[in-house]
Amino acid sequence: MVTATGPRTARSEDCEVGAVQLTPHEQERLLIHVAADVARRRRDRGLRLNHPEAVALITAHVLEGARDGRTVAELMASGRRLLTRDDVMDGVAEMIHDVQAEATFPDGTKLVTVHDPIV
């Protein structure tokens, strides 16, 4: 179990003692990474990805790439090489025209758009 300690606030007193408290933004990021992990495992087993799995995988790629110090241009390009039509279920490539992720770079937060990410 993961625990965190800090100053007690009215909000923290309502929560379970020792529970990790995440902001909505942190919860969203965590959900993206969990979904991307599921997608990776399914792809590794030879399964084709559905729409949410494909979007999560591309989004996590952008978020992690920004954390690693890659540029917006690099992530826009590499995001297009991550998945092919063979990696996704029929019709999924046509459903995803753009994937946008607000990523934190060393010089601030930027919106990264991967256009036509599944080739």
From TrEMBL:
GO terms for molecular function: nickel cation binding; urease activity. It is an enzyme of class 3 (hydrolase). Pathway: Nitrogen metabolism; urea degradation; CO(2) and NH(3) from urea (urease route): step 1/1. CDD domains: Urease_gamma. One of its GO terms (cellular component) is cytoplasm. One of its GO terms (biological process) is urea catabolic process. Heterotrimer of UreA (gamma), UreB (beta) and UreC (alpha) subunits. Three heterotrimers associate to form the active enzyme. This is Urease subunit gamma.
